[in-house]
Amino acid sequence: MNEQAKKEILRKIPYGLYVIGVKGGGGCHAFTGSWLSQCSMKPPKVMLGVRQGTHSLDLLREGKAFAVNFLGKGDIKVLEQFFKATPADGNRFGDLEFSLKKTGTPILGKAVSYLECAVQDIFEVGDHSIVIGEVVEAEVVKPDPPLVMGDTPWHYGG
After folding, report:
1. Domain range annotation of the chain
2. CATH no. for 9-150
3. Would you state the pLDDT for residue 25?
4. How far apart are CA 11 and CA 78, in angstroms?
5. Are 19 and 115 in contact (CB under 8 A)?
6. How many whole angstroms separate alpha carbon 141 and alpha carbon 112?
């Protein structure tokens, strides 16, 4: 296989960028996600790719729920906060406001929309797991277009 061509083509798949909120271990946590897709309409379900061996995946298994926070195009700095390692004090959110709604997973005050999902299944598929979540709540807070990978200099894949 032409490794360079494979990498280049896989990086051309359009991806959103999301802050994924999870619960467990007596608190809340969040991480940046980009591999998200709807996989069922009835019932409404999404699939989320999460790296194997992470604290985030452990919390998804424990808490059995997640929130998908969609940010506006101007909120790259908010997203960057969730790329960084968790601070020593454990406060992943810093000064960012969030609330807990139906699933008890964090919904950012900056979110332009969000989904709350109940974990239905988790499949190991290589260096990532696929988390299947049934959408149990959704809200459009503002009709702003969401931040996507193409709005940034970043890429994840290939």
Report:
1. 9-150
2. 2.30.110.10
3. 83
4. 23
5. no
6. 5
